[in-house]
Write a structure and sequence with these properties.
By secondary structure, the protein is an alpha/beta fold. 40% of the residues lie in helices and 15% in strands. The protein is built from twelve helices and 14 strands. The strands form four sheets. A seven-stranded mixed beta sheet has the order 4-10-9-8-7-5-6, with helices on both faces. Strands 11-14-13 form a three-stranded antiparallel beta sheet. A two-stranded antiparallel sheet has the order 1-2. The N and C termini lie far apart (46 Å).
Length: 397
């Protein structure tokens, strides 16, 4: 790829835009006060006990240096014990856990450990952008597994033998961002068996392990693959513990996969700041009522936003998990999901995420992030209703 007198790698041609960058520009050029529902960045505070650990670490010069793998042992132990308590799966903190700078780092780097140029990754469409970006950086090819309402689960039966012969990895993520779809344990068992049969690595991106409502508990991939035969699962503290800005997550899984991911990671970065790891370990090992209370807040927001949208005539399903709503565009709106989101933020200040930013199958939808209190979500719905009424008049509806 050429820009002026400079030459850049061809892989950059696949990375020209992303949904969050596109909406960041749209928000910046809006003349309205912004109600930002486009980014799933929690507005809730991190756990106080975790923050106390971080404050303590900041005053300790011994925490200020580079951190290598062996220095992460206390965090890895806390992460392993969290997974064991929650899912009943035994985890070796030395060989089956790797700290990450957020789970996105895992999805971005794992293709570098698995794919040679031209190999295929099987990815959900729509899906999370970092799943796609890592494959492009590795020189891999993408086979899209189209997701459709009502269940938003992929069908493995339609994948051609030519693709399967060159496929190395399958990436799943349930509860699903952006569609809010959920996967039963039987589906995970099917996916594990499929990967075992075809020699694929199964990567499960699992940010919403806790964000589930009405007694629903999302299964871990290890409930379907307890021997960790083909699986790697990625966790983050961004959602359950509201530590998104601290960039802390971890991978758990097959020791060979953990070793491969560590090989890539160790030549690209040191490990997260020791004080952040201490805070994260406290969050994972401390009282979990904080998580329970946060989930109830997100459920309240879900119910308030679904009702407020229904009040303006926009009927959106109430999801069983995640911190999002996945809403089909109004039938009378003739533009794309990106057009809708740009028009909406410029005319009302309400920022949503266009479904097309998550893949071709996301076109026709928009995503709401429930990152404001119910009164703000209701205010946003009223503004959307006024915009909607105006756009209906423009098309003679």
């Amino acid at each position: 790829m050429r820009l002026g007198s400079m030459n850049f790698a061809q892989r950059l041609s696949y990375l020209q835009s992303n949904v969050f960058g596109d909406m960041d520009l749209a928000k910046a050029t809006s003349q309205r006060g912004i109600i930002d529902l486009s980014l799933g960045s929690s507005d809730l505070p991190a756990p106080p006990l975790a923050m106390a650990k971080l404050h303590q670490a900041l005053d300790d010069p011994a925490t200020h240096g580079y951190l290598l793998f062996e220095g992460t042992a206390p965090f890895r132990t806390a992460a392993a014990q969290w997974v064991e308590r929650k899912f009943g799966i035994s985890v070796d903190p030395q060989t089956e856990v790797l700290p990450l700078s957020g789970s996105q780092e895992g999805t971005a780097l794992m293709p570098l450990a698995l794919l040679d140029p031209g190999d295929y990754a099987l990815l959900l469409d729509p899906g999370y952008p970092s799943h796609w970006g890592g494959v492009h950086l590795a020189g891999g090819q993408i086979h899209r597994l189209k997701l459709q309402a009502p269940d938003f689960l992929p069908d493995f039966s339609g994948i051609s033998p030519n693709v399967l012969d060159k496929a190395k990895m399958l990436v799943l993520s349930y509860p699903h961002n952006p569609t809010t779809g959920i996967a039963p344990l039987e589906f995970f068992k099917e996916a594990v068996a499929f990967c075992q049969k075809h020699g694929l690595t199964l990567i499960h991106d699992f940010p919403y392990a806790d964000i589930a409502f009405g007694g629903y508990t999302p299964p871990s991939i290890f409930n379907a693959d307890p021997e960790k035969s083909v699986s790697l699962e990625l966790f983050t503290l961004s959602k359950s513990y509201h530590m998104g800005g601290f960039r802390i997550g971890y991978a758990v899984g097959n020791p060979g996969l953990i070793k491969a991911l560590r090989q890539v990671r160790d030549v690209t970065n040191f490990y997260p700041y020791r004080g952040i790891l201490q805070a994260a370990a406290q969050a994972l090992s401390g009282p979990q009522d904080y998580v329970t209370e946060s989930v109830l807040l997100f459920q309240e927001r879900r119910d308030a936003c679904v009702q407020a949208l229904a009040d303006i005539g926009w009927y959106v399903p109430a999801p069983k998990a995640t911190m999002y709503l996945w809403a089909k565009l109004p039938q009378h709106y003739s533009g794309s999901s990106m057009d809708f989101c740009r028009d909406l933020v410029h005319k009302t200040g309400v920022a949503l995420a266009p479904g097309s930013g998550f893949g071709m199958s996301g076109e026709g939808y928009v995503r709401f992030a429930l990152v404001h209190p119910p009164d703000v979500l209701r205010k946003a719905a009223v503004a959307i209703g006024e915009f909607w009424h105006g756009s209906r008049q423009q098309v003679g509806g």
